[in-house]
Each structure stands twice: as structure tokens, then as C-alpha cells.
């Protein structure tokens, strides 16, 4: 079984066949998951903001979500979402498959009662599957590398914050760093693909508006989902299941 975790746009796209909604009790709280198949491949989907869209970025229970994946036997998880572009030289919309991330502001961990240190990062085998799939499926530019900068949310970033972080990263979001960290702590392989649907606040003089971000993200969500579907097939073949 392969896992997929995404944002609110997953709610608006038919992704799984024979979908069944389940609730999973974990040591970190309750997690919601959808179980089904994709062309015969068993897939578990978690909507990070909840089925009711009631979990903003700063209150998402990442440990519960990924412990639920682990309890289902999931060893590989693909994340997908929308991120702000920090680079003026990139024409958007575009896809980015980050190779690294910066997350100074999150304290998310499954290790609250023991001293355990992991080396964070995105899984290269999943990244490669996403890159190869994106090249085949997408008509958008594909950035094969990039640094994802995670902010706390739920507010968007100030112009001054963007001026600072654009020197160190290529895109900005609110979830992938925490997901990657918790996944690594639980021994789950994880990588993320993001649509860059808007320039971050002040890049190319753009004023960022949440409603505009959602509108643009919806327009590009189907392309991103097609990439993910093809990547799932490739990852399943590599695993022999």
C-alpha cells in the first residue's frame, strides 16, 4: 500500500476507486483516511486539512497522520500541495519536486518522551519517480530540485519575510517540512510535489491573496494528480506489488 497526503483540493477530485472512509486511533490522536485502489494498487489517502477543511496548517496533527499510515502498512508516502514561488526567473504555473527543506519554526515530532535524533530529508527514490512522471505527464515547467521553506501559518508571509527567505529557498509553504520530519522519524519514505501557482508576497511586485491562490491551485491540481498517479504506478512496480 502506498500513501498520499494532500490538501483541500483532494476533496474535490475523484482519486480512488472503491473508496472507503476510516478513522484510525493512534497514540497521537485520531486520524482520518480514505482507503481504495488506483488501477489495482492499494492506496491510502489522508487529507491534511481534514475532510471538513477544519485543520489549518498550525494545528495539523502530523504525528497522528503518519502513524496512521504506518499502522496501515504504508512505507512510502507522496505529498502534494501548493507553494509560493520565491524565484523571479521562473514562469508560473510550474511544478517543483524539492530536494531539501528549511523548517525553523515547527516543533513537530513523535519523540516527546525520549532523546532521538534523525537526519531529515526527502526520499530520493520517490523524488525520482515524481520527476520522471512529471516530465511525461505535465505540460508545465518541472523544477527537479529546489529548497522548500516552511513557515508556520496560517497567515501568509510579509514582504520583508519573503525578501529574507528568497535568498535561501525556491518555494514557500506551510506543511511539507513537518511531514518530512515526522515521516523520517517513523521510518516512512516521503517526498512532495508542489504546484507553484503564485509568486510569494512581493516577488515580481505581486500582492498575494488567498482566494487567488486557491483559484490558481484548482486550475493546476488535476495535472499534479496525474503526475502522482503515474508515480504511484512506478513505485508499486519497483516494490513488486
> The CATH topology, please?
Rossmann fold
Number of domains: 1
- Estimate the strand proportion: 25-35%
Query: How does CATH name the architecture?
Result: 3-Layer(aba) Sandwich
- Structural class category: alpha/beta
Using the coordinates above, name the CATH class. Answer: Alpha Beta
Mean pLDDT: 90
Helix content: 25-40%
Radius of gyration: 17 Å
The major pleated sheet works out as: 11 strands, mixed
Q: What is the ordering of alpha helices and beta strands? A: EEEEHEEEHEEHEHEH
Keywords:
11 strands; globular; 5 helices; 241 residues; Rossmann fold; alpha/beta; 11-stranded mixed beta sheet
Quickly describe the structure.
The protein is 29% helix and 28% strand.
Structure, explained:
It is a single chain. The chain has 241 residues and is of the alpha/beta class. It has one domain: Nucleoside phosphorylase domain (Rossmann fold), CATH 3.40.50.1580. It has five helices and eleven strands. Helix 2 packs across helix 5. It is globular. The termini are close together.
Amino acid at each position: 500500500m502506498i500513501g498520499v497526503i494532500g490538501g483541500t483540493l483532494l476533496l474535490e477530485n475523484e482519486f480512488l476507486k472503491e473508496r472507503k472512509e476510516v478513522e484510525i486511533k493512534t497514540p497521537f490522536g485520531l486520524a482520518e483516511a480514505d482507503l481504495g485502489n488506483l488501477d489495482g494498487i492499494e492506496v491510502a489517502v489522508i487529507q491534511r486539512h481534514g475532510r471538513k477543511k477544519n485543520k489549518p496548517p498550525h494545528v495539523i496533527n502530523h504525528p497522528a497522520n503518519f502513524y496512521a499510515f504506518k499502522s496501515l502498512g504504508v512505507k512510502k508516502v507522496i505529498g502534494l500541495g501548493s507553494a509560493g514561488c520565491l524565484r523571479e526567473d521562473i514562469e508560473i504555473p510550474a511544478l517543483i519536486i524539492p530536494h531539501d527543506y528549511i523548517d525553523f519554526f515547527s516543533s513537530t515530532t513523535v519523540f516527546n518522551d525520549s532523546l532521538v535524533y534523525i537526519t531529515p530529508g526527502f526520499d530520493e527514490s520517490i523524488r525520482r519517480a515524481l520527476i520522471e512522471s512529471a516530465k511525461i505527464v505535465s505540460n508545465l515547467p518541472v523544477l527537479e530540485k529546489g529548497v522548500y521553506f516552511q513557515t508556520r501559518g496560517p497567515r501568509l508571509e510579509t514582504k520583508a519575510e519573503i525578501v529574507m527567505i528568497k535568498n535561501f529557498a525556491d518555494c514557500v509553504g506551510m506543511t511539507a517540512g513537518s511531514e518530512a520530519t515526522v515521516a523520517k522519524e517513523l521510518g516512512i519514505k516521503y517526498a512532495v510535489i508542489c504546484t507553484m501557482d503564485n509568486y510569494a508576497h512581493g516577488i515580481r511586485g505581486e500582492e498575494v491573496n488567498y482566494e487567488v491562490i486557491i483559484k490558481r491551485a484548482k486550475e493546476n491540481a488535476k495535472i499534479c494528480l496525474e503526475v502522482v498517479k503515474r508515480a504511484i504506478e512506478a513505485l508499486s512496480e519497483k516494490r513488486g506489488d
